[in-house]
Amino acid sequence: MVLSTAKCLPAGLHVYQTLDGDDLTLCEIEIADEEDIFVWNGVEVGGIQIPTGSDCEPLLLNVLHLATSSEGEKCQQLTESPQVFPSNAEVGSVFTALAIPVGAIFLSSTECTNEGWTAIPQEDWRKTFREQGLTNGSFVLIQDSSNSNNSLLTKQGEWITTVNETNWIQVKNLCQSESEEELVKIPATANTVVFDIRIKAIKELKLMKELAENSCLRPIDRDGKLLCPVPDHCTLKETELRIESSLGLCPGKAPTSSQLFLFFAVGSHIQPGTEMEIIVEETITVRDCLKIMLEKLGLPGDSWHLRKTDWCYEAGEPLHEEDATLKELMIYSGDTLLLIEGKLPPPLSEMLRFQGFLKVPIWWYQPHGCAGPWRSHQDQTNGPPPQGGVWGASATQGAPGDTYAEASLSYLGDIEISDDATLAELKSQAMTLPSVSEFFIPSPAFLRAWTVESKRPSRLLRINQQQLREYKLGRRTEICLEPLQKEENLGPQDVLLRIQRRLPGERAYGPPVDLVWDTALGWTASTLQRRVADCCSLPVEKIEIAKYFPEKFEWLPVSSWSQQTTKRKKKKKQENLQGAPYYLKDGDTIGIKNLLVEDDGDFSTDRDDAGKEKQKQLALGGRKSQEVLRGQSSSVVSGAELPGRPQRPEASLSIHVGSFR
């Protein structure tokens, strides 16, 4: 038994290197992730010897040649067939594979068969397909020597598909039923102009010359339906019409470049082929287009609206913007509009609001410096977000813990969910977004949800089984999801903080670490210090902590204090870090200093100094601009002769203070 690496190529499975060395590991023999291993005897499969290696990779080529009739004679029609050749095979072997006499070979490396053909000299037939630069999907045109007088190529080397008028456009007469001819075939190439085909069809159908000024060609699909007219000035290649297509010669002019040819019908359930047709300007509004269609149908009343058809040929979204033009709404020639009876329904966002639904934008939030199993299949550390834009700036190494400002928010998409749903259901629905599938998220319990305000995470949504209505999210609330390394179930009295330890001898901090603080024993400085000390495995008297205010670039040491409400009773206000001056909340950054290695009271960093200096310069610049404006206004006032403001006589003022005891 032999093990070999294999790859799935367009031509099929190909065997490459044989794995030798029983004592080697997969890493040592450079086996990549998700690589295919082929198990065989190393020589043959099903009695057929199999060539291996990259030199003989199979190529899937498109070979064009004249077809052969059942009597063995050459037909005047080209056929295209896929053929597989080893990349190290000689180009001349194509004659043997097709069993045709030696003739001429033309190659094209492009998928388009209209141009780019290159004749291969006979002395180069012994070169391999790889040496000729052919790849999967390349085209090979074979012409035997018996057809040398009817070359399939022009002198310029462009593809012209005319061999004794084999390639043609079929034109059906739909203008006059009394005509002698009903169907003609017009020889054409990819560069034939539609106008030339139409005029020649009128002549061969023996129709009136007046139709030259008042007729058009319309493609006929396989179901017999007439499609949108094709412009006269375009070539068959530009209209994307294929050779041997069927066109109908119809009365009426084709729309100009500024007009749209539209189908329309009444009702949401229509059958293909029963629509009516109309030509309108692309700058017409939806409201005016609706009026024209109603007049053409002879329908009275104002209780109608327009809808586009979806890919299932059913009624799609209504055209709500009635004053917008068809061009602005990206309506194109050939589209089908439906006239639906009834007033225009409200937009989907309003319907969701009335029905108790929320349309919530979802963002992806991952603090810098954190790593875990949520990293995507592709390393997106420095890459673009999975979808849409990014909020945030790059992190500064050693900077204090403004974790939100240093992280990025990547837009994932919108979800529509009932406000009766729970937070866990919101997370589960968000996990179905295509961008989230790039990350390894075992369950919704591995996601932490925040509201987004001012382009950064704000309020933590902690209880998974709580309904969204109870969170009072509002109609414009946005949610960001933060991946976790383990499941999290925060209680109502738990506070989530980001702690960062100061690096000894440096004005910098280590990466942020999540700390869950149970405030059941109170929001006091002493309980917080004990919790931080336990987390850092340090004595509580040997640490000092401070809260970071990123908007001011300042650190405020956290310590116990007492505040008196009145001097008369000497009553102390209960200590609470939720109030002034700390205003502690979920997501705040707490800096930790180890007093065993440094005992100074400085918590700031170089980044803080730079931030304060920048704020000082901005404030100074604003003050100077105000002084300039004040000086300009005073000069204007002083230059004008304004009457002095009369002074009002002085009056006494009485102040009465009520008793609220």
Helix content: 10-25%
Strand order of the largest sheet: 21-22-20-25-23-24
Beta-strand segment tally: 32
* C-alpha-based Rg, rounded: 39 Å
Spans of at least 5 consecutive residues whose pLDDT stays below 50 are 147-166, 369-398, 401-406, 636-645
Cα distance, first to last residue?
98 Å
Major β-sheet annotation? 6 strands, mixed
Q: Average pLDDT value?
A: 78
Q: What would you call the structural class?
A: alpha+beta
* Tally of helical runs: 8
Morphology call? flat
Roughly what fraction of the amino acids lie in strands? 25-35%
Commentary on this structure:
- This protein is of the alpha+beta class and 661 residues long.
- 14% of the residues lie in helices and 29% in strands.
- It has helices at 93-98, 194-204, 286-297, 348-354, 423-430, 468-471, 525-536, 606-639, and strands at residues 2-9, 12-18, 36-40, 44-45, 48-49, 58-68, 74-86, 103-108, 118-119, 139-144, 168-173, 183-187, 215-219, 246-251, 259-266, 276-281, 304-309, 315-318, 336-341, 357-366, 390-391, 408-418, 447-453, 456-461, 478-483, 494-501, 513-518, 543-549, 554-557, 563-564, 572-573, 589-594.
- The strands form 8 sheets. The chain has a 6-stranded mixed β-sheet with strand order 21-22-20-25-23-24.
- Strand 17 and strand 18 (315-318) form a beta hairpin.
- It is flat.
- The chain starts with a strand and ends in a 22-residue tail after the last helix.
- Residues 147-166, 369-398, 401-406 and 636-645 have low confidence and may be disordered.
